[in-house]
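Same chain as my last thread, 290 residues:
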Amino acid sequence: MPSLTLSQTYHQPTSTLTVRGEAPLPSRPVDGSARLPLQAIESNFECQLEIRQGETTKTLQGDSVWLKNLITVIDRYVESQLSGTPKGTFSGTAAIRPLDFISHRLTVRQGEDRIAQVDLSMTQLYDLLENLSQAAEDLPQLDKLATPPTPAWYRQPTAIAALLAGGIALVAGVGLWVSRRDPPPPPSPPQEQLTAPEAAGDLQQRLESTLAQRWQSPPGLQESLVYRVTVDETGFPLAAEPKNAPARERRAITPFADVPEVAPDPLPRGARQFRVSLGPADQVEVAAVQ
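reply #2:
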C-alpha cells in the first residue's frame, strides 16, 4: 500500500526528540497547506533523542516500545521527585535513578546487545519531560505501533558466531553480555517462569558462565568483590550493587563497570537477584538470593 513518511521534531534548550513513521496515503488528496497528524502513523516508527551536554551531544535511538517506556519512566520519576521521595524507576527498556539531589542517571537499552547511560541535570530532566509529554500527546497510538519482537541477542546466530570467532567484543565502550551456551529451550509460559526453580538455576548458570569468561582479577587482589546482581528474565544485567568496600572501590575494573548500581523498583516480571563474588585467581561464585 502506498505510504508517506511523517516526522516531527520537539526542541528544548538541552534536548531534541525526533519521531518519524509511515502513514497510508489518504484516499482523498490533501490540501497543500494541510498536514497529516502524527496520529496517522501506522508502521516503521522510530525515534531519536539528542541530549546536549556542554560541547558534546549524546544520541539515543529506539522504536515505539522504547519511546513508550521512556515516557513512562520519566513521567513516574518526576512525579516521585515532586512528591519529595525520589526513587529509581524502571519500565522495560529504560530506567532512571537519582545520583544526588541535582543529578540523575538515565539508563536505556540500545538494540539487543548494549546499554547506554546519560547523567542528567535537573534542567535536562525537565527539558526531556517536556519533549516526551508533547510526543505522548501527538502519538496516542504508541501502544499499537509495537515492533515485532526479535530474538534476544544471545540467541541470535550472528552474536554466537562473533563470540566464538573473536571472544568478547566491546561496543561503544559498553561490554556485551554474551554466553557460550547453546540457545536455551523455548521458554515456559510466563507463570511457570516465575515459579519454576529451574528458571532461576538457568539464569544463575548463564550469569556464572558469562562472568567466568569476563572476570580477570587484578594483580594483588586479596579480598573478593561482592555484588548483589539483578538480571531480567533473559539474563540481561539490570543492576550490580556493591556489598563490600573493595567491590565499590574496584567496580570500574569489573564486568559491572557500566551497569547501574540500584535495582529497578519494583523489579520487572521474571527478574532474579544473585550474590556474585569475584575473587583472586579469576574465581567467580554465584548464588541465588532468597
